[in-house]
Every structure is written in structure tokens, then in C-alpha cells.
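Our consortium's second objective concerns turning raw sequence data into structural hypotheses that experimental partners can test. To show how far this objective has progressed, the report includes one record in full. It was chosen at random from the queue rather than selected for favorable results. The single chain below, 515 residues long, was entered without modification.
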Amino acid sequence: MRLLTAVAALLALMGAGNAFAAGDVVISQVYGGGGNSGATLKNDYIELYNRGTTTVDISTWSVQYASSTGSSWARTNLSGSLAPGKYYLVQEAAGTGGTTSLPTPDATGSIAMSATTGKVALVMTQTALTCGSAPGNCFPNAAISDFVGYGTAATNFEGAGPTATLSNTTAALRNGGGTIDTDNNAADFTAGTPNPRNSGGTPPPPPPPTPELEIGQIQGASHTSPYEGQMVSTTGTVTATRIAGGRGFYLQDPSPDTSSATSEGIFIFTNAVPSVSIGTAVKVTGTVSEFRAATVNLSITQISTSNAAVSTLTTGNPLPAATVIGTGGLFPPTETIDDDSFATFDPANDAIDFYESLEGMLVKLNAGAAVVGPTKNFGEFVALPDMGSWTTGLRTPRGGILYSYADPQPERLAIDDEILRDQISPRPPRAMPNLDVGDVITSAIVGPLDYTFANYKIQATSTPTFVSGGLEPEVTAAPRDQEIAIATFNVENLDPSDTEALPRLAAQIVDNLRS
């Protein structure tokens, strides 16, 4: 699973490429369904918009198109200039259907574009591009002024991802009438009814100002943000970074609000190696989104943006104090995960709401946490704060805690190593020490509170130290005369080429089970 995740992350890294500095002339619409079945318009088209304040000479520019995975680019040369606040309509190939002609185009080409997925570039020369067959290989390129990957199959795009997949009746429409450009195709475009405009078209009204909100306002007292899908700006201090896997950084407000129900931290998803460092105070502009890894999981509130939309305010700032979970801090509910099916957001009584109120924030377990679940293959273990001194669950003789439907032990917390092993290549499969039930963590555990694989967990920022509890694998008694021993053994993903795991498992089966 981690190998697949790492491969997917690498492909995403390449696909994102470099975000362009937001230019004056942008691609404001892309439509490839012209003349197709069900289409009203007869032609494909590409629309440009000058979102700047000065006239731009585009007489040596071109618009170019390639298939979603292709590197063969067709181009249409442009002419003239584009005044501020004006559109520029490039008519492309006609299909056999449709009933309505485009407005009088400002330039005419013959490119037959895909209705669903492809790549369009606004190029400041009239030389055909040759990139696009590999994820991200169109970047960097100083000749490209703007770039749109549309449809989920597109291998190249700006920012976190391509636009939504289009159809014979939908175009990629840049938000704000063409005015919004955060160098993130996924956030900047919406699929909607084609609305082609030429240089005589009415300019859009100025976009409303982006609201500047505190992180607590964005998070809200809920599992989802009240600003989901909206463009916002916020400020805070960078507390941790992620350069591999889910790339971005954690941001926390150093001046928290007065509500204990709203988290003061949030993950900023840049889909590229973040350009900021820990302790930097930044201003971020992006789209609030809810990332849900699977339908059975909760979502994670985040801001999707690009490095270009992150501005540094100051550097070298102290990090906000980590919120202690346990003695000297906040105590989670110890018996109830959720008693009202999410009807009421109740951190005081529902553990799932308690941890949500800390999502993305730096949290801390005091030294002396008890290990109640061993380190797994994916590099995480389960700990009980403060040696379980305030927990209500029954402890086992070997040092664990008894889980039951009556008491699911929500005071347990998973500790993960995603930050500890955070490097692009080669990325180690795990970085957590081998811990076992009964061990005691002798260092504090500090890190942002994350949620993956249906569990809240601390992404540790330093490797924990520990004292072994001396747990040894049980050795079964040999069967006596007239007795037979029956046992089961889960070998998980047994790989005969694994020279470390295979002998260990074999020894357990032969020696410990007396088989």
C-alpha cells in the first residue's frame, strides 16, 4: 500500500510542475465539444482574458492543444493586442452537429479538441511545444504564459490538479469571469455551460474581495468547514512540512480564538514541495476543501493552493505551544466515540468531536505514555497518555488495554511516522522504532494531529525514546501424549523473497507454536 502511495505521490509531484506567476493574459475558457452530439455550439473554442491593467501585444503568441497524454501540439497563431478587461476568442474546429455559431472570433484555427480531457497552453511564441507525454514535463518553460490541463487524465496541469472532466455540453470556465488565477487548475476552473466571448464582449464585474479569515473560522465547530469550496485568505505560523506523500505544510494561528470547539491549525495542500520552512509566518490564499481518502473516512479540512499563493510575512518565529492531551492539558472522553450520529458537535462528550477540534494543531503527549499497540508495518504504534493513569479501560497483564464495544478506548492515540520519514527519494518504508506492548515512551511526543485510515493520529516530529517492557513472544507447551494442539497464525502479506520477515515468521511457527 505504501509503495502504491509513494508511486502515486511521485506522479502527482511530476504532474503539478511549476506554478506560473499569475500573468495578465490567461486562458479563461476551454471547450472541445463543439458540433458533437448534444452540443448547441458548432465549434470548439479557447477564450483568453486580460486580467491586468495594460494592453498586451499578442501578435507573436499562439494557443496550442495536445491530447491528455500526448506531446504532439497543434497551434493557432494569434494577432493584434488585447486590452485590459477584454476577452479574445479563438475559434477552433467544427463538428457535424450544433445549431449555434460562435460570436465573431478574434482568431480562427482548425484544432479538433477532445470534449473531455486534454491540455491547452498559451505560448508567447509561435513554435510548437514538444512536451506532455510524461507527467509534469511541460514545466518549467519560460515560453508558456498560461496552461490548462482539463479532465482527470491530463498529465500536465497547473497546481494541485487538472480541471474536472468536461463533456459535449460543458466547458472549463475560469472563476470570476476569468479574473481568478491562483495557478491551480483544479481550484480556478469550474465545469459549466459554454459562454464564449470575443473582444467586443462585456467585461465581468470585478471579483468580490477574498475574505481574510482566522483559521478557527475556516475550521468551524464542525467536521467540515462552513467555507468549503470558497476562496479564502488566512495567516499563521508553519509548524511542520510534508515534502513527500501529501505535500504541503501545517499552519497554526499563534493567537487562538476563545472557542475550544474550533481548531487553530489546518493543513495547506500545495501538491508540491512547500517553499516555506518551519517557524515562518505566512499568508495563504486558496480554496477550502475537504479531503476524504475513502467514503468510510471522515474528511480533513484543508486549503488547496500553490506555492505562488503563499507569501512570507516573517521568519524565525517561535512555534505555538503544543496542546497537551492528558495531565496538564485537555482530557478526551474515555468511553464514547459518538453518541448522537454527528447530530451535535460535542467535544466534551464525543471523542470523535474532541479530536476534530484539534485537527491540524500541534498536540503533545507527556513523557511516560504507555505503548498499548506495537509498531506496525506502516510505522505507527498506539499509545495511552500518562501511563493510562486517568483512563477507564481495563489493562491487560501484558501492558495493553482491553477494547470492547462497550468501551472502545478513545483515549488511545496512534503515533505515526509520516513526517519522520519525509523525504522524496529514497523514502524509507518506516522510521519509527520497533515498539511493543508494555514499552514506555520516555520522551514527549509532539506533532500535528492528523487523520488517516479512519483514525486520528499524531504525526511525530521527533523520534520517540523508550524503555522496553521486556515482552517476549509466548512459547506454547508441547502437546502431551494423546493431545493435539491447534493454532492459527496470520502471516499477513507473506513474500518468499523477504529475507528478513520470512525466517522470523518461520521461527515463530516452528519454535513458538511447536509445530
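The partners drew two points from this record. Confidence is low (pLDDT under 50) at residues 1-22. The two ends are 31 Å apart (CA to CA). Both points have been shared with the crystallography group to help prioritize constructs.
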